[in-house]
Design a protein that fits this description.
single chain, Arginase, Chain A, 10 helices
């Protein structure tokens, strides 16, 4: 694997949510200069364009709230294979697209890690845990189920193939949660997932919490996948998302997390999800997410450009 090679995979999926616009996310990142930003850091960037899985026939499920289940299954299979292949060549970066894409990216990365004799660890930066199954979701929006699928929780068979190497719950750390449904609370408690909500960040600081998790990943010799949802951030600085929840991470908290992730040298793949350019303000959310990715890839505070809007 070439540590200097970043493989960009556009994922114009919006089937996981009823709000339109996330399919424009990959184009917004490209317009924000995503590739050029990484190249300026001395990285090799290969943009493989957008994934476009085939359409399938509608699938019936006992949960009447579910929508676009067959589309979700096809996206998951295509992305899992794309992640698995790209992971042997460089660092896959998935430009979304709603968070349902992580069912495929995480399961594909975990499969590759297992073949290399490693375990995949996941840092989930999000206002929501996305731990619903097909049975427990009341909204029916499938951007709320990807982590449950990647963990191999029951309730997805026979609608989706089971992940080849399910992620272990103890290898997952969720930071920034502030909107959790009762069913998800039970899963967190029973599975033993590490969770740091916004109160924990307020009390202890994001650096302390993240450092402890990174030390665990390093001690285990694990691979690290980072899934960054726009709604992890305070809506005032990142308005381009359909699921805003007040009280998110600040500009500096988010950049500190990215800088620490770079310093750790552990990150093997990255999701950037839930960007909805239709809800953005002159591209400011796309630019912020691009800047956060740059911090993760090595840009220092002293290198940050000045922008006016």
């Amino acid at each position: 694997m070439d540590e200097k090679r970043c493989i960009l995979i556009g994922v114009p999926v919006q089937d996981g949510t009823r709000r339109l616009g996330c399919d424009m996310g990959p184009s917004a990142y490209r317009a924000a200069g995503f590739s050029e930003t990484l190249v300026s850091l001395g990285l090799i960037v290969e943009d493989r364009g957008n994934i476009a899985p085939p359409r399938g026939a509608a699938v019936d499920h006992p949960n009447p709230n579910l929508t676009k289940l067959s589309e979700f299954a096809l996206w998951t299979e295509a992305l899992s294979e794309a992640a698995y292949r790209a992971a042997s060549e460089g660092m896959p970066i998935f430009l979304g697209g709603d968070h349902s894409l992580s069912a495929g990216s995480v399961s594909g990365m975990s499969r590759r890690a297992a073949e290399e004799g490693r375990e995949l660890h996941v840092l989930w930066l999000d206002a929501h845990p996305d731990l619903h199954t097909l049975e427990t979701t009341t909204s029916g929006n499938l951007h709320g189920v990807p982590m449950a699928y990647a963990l191999g929780l029951p309730g997805f068979d026979p609608y989706l193939p089971p992940p080849v190497a399910p992620v272990k719950p103890e290898n997952v750390c969720m930071i920034g949660l502030r909107s959790v449904d009762p069913a998800e609370r039970r899963t967190i408690r029973e599975a033993g997932i590490t969770v740091h909500d916004m109160r924990a960040i307020d009390e202890f600081g994001i650096g302390v919490l993240l450092k402890a998790f990174l030390e665990r990943v390093a001690a285990a010799g694990g691979w690290l996948h980072v899934s960054l949802d726009v709604d992890f951030l305070e809506p005032a600085i990142a308005p381009g998302v359909g699921t805003t929840v007040p009280g998110g991470a600040t500009f500096r908290e988010a950049h500190l997390a990215m800088e620490m992730l770079h310093d750790s040298g552990l990150v093997r793949s990255l999701d950037l999800v839930e960007l909805n350019p239709f809800l953005d303000e002159r591209g400011r959310t796309a630019i912020l997410m691009t800047d956060l990715a740059a911090s993760l890839m090595g840009r220092s505070v002293l290198d940050r450009p000045t922008r006016s809007f």
